[in-house]
Amino acid sequence: MLKVISIIGTRPEAIKMALLHKYLCEDDKFTAKLCSTGQHKELVSDVLQNFKIKADFEFEAMDYNSSMAAQMAYMLGALQKLVEEEMPHLIIVQGDTLTAYCGSQIAFLNKIKLVHVEAGLRTYNKWGPFPEDINRRYIDMVADLHCAPTHSAKENLISENVKPESIIITGNTGIDALKYISNSITQGTLNVDEKLKNEIDALTSDGISVGLLTLHRRESTIETMLQMLQNIESAAEDNSLVIYFPMHPNPKFQAIIEEFKDSNIIRCIDALSYNIFVWIMNASNIILTDSGGIQEEAPALGKPLIILRQETERVELLDHSFCKLYNPNTISSDIKHLLNQKSKPIEIYGDGMACQKIIDGIKRITSF
Known about the structure:
There is one protein chain. By secondary structure, the chain is α/β, with parallel strands linked by helices. It contains 14 helices and 13 strands.
């Protein structure tokens, strides 16, 4: 049997890797274990509960959050000890986080095969997203199997001289997770927040549109975020839009909470569990985000989207009229245009079968 360790540390990684790990555990070709580095410890644990799994190993990366370098040093040491004890044949990492970067370093330094889920995304701007674009480039340099979500991601890899036979186009595992959780909510096996549901139902019955906003990128300063939120608040008021803003747990966001605590337009709320977050995405008329994963989920749900960045590595979105990059000069008219659009779900980032395609790819590179 092939010994596999999947390494996650953040909530987006947990969302995109949970089902893959679950399916690996159910396949008799693998002995699969899950390691959480602890970048978002509580948020990761909450996500995993939705999929009825838990981490086999948990580290404490958040205790070393004084700098990226300190956190990286801690994770490299902890992961090195783990692979010496477990001696896996294969390591799987997802995306572009510090956890994924450290997992790929450990795989390379110990000559362990590496699978990169969500390979090939690029802006070719080392400062945005920071440090993620550089993390991705390194991971793809050392990966043995590149699971590209789209054709454009594959083309990026080929342009960087990655061997075509090491690349498979899978779609994104985040879409698998989204479909799984949406079905669980529909079937009643996962609950929704009744108080939040009643509040949103009341707004909708009054003819008020509902938006969902997330904002957390490391490269954004509090000052730039506040300016952006002020622009969004004014634009939302122009368009009879109320926006729910689940707060990232990072303490630096306290200034934003203070600024908007009395706003009835941008409503700061506590971070949501993943199942509630999926529900509110479905309930929203428009989504505004700087998150990579939500850029993929919005079109899968048929939701108009404003990307709160100057550029995106998910370039396929820009070919569609339901998506706009943030522009402070046109934000009000952009919201109006998007709210008036009749959008429908579109499978830009996969059909919900990415996990199985990845498992088939792993069997191929490991001679199963």
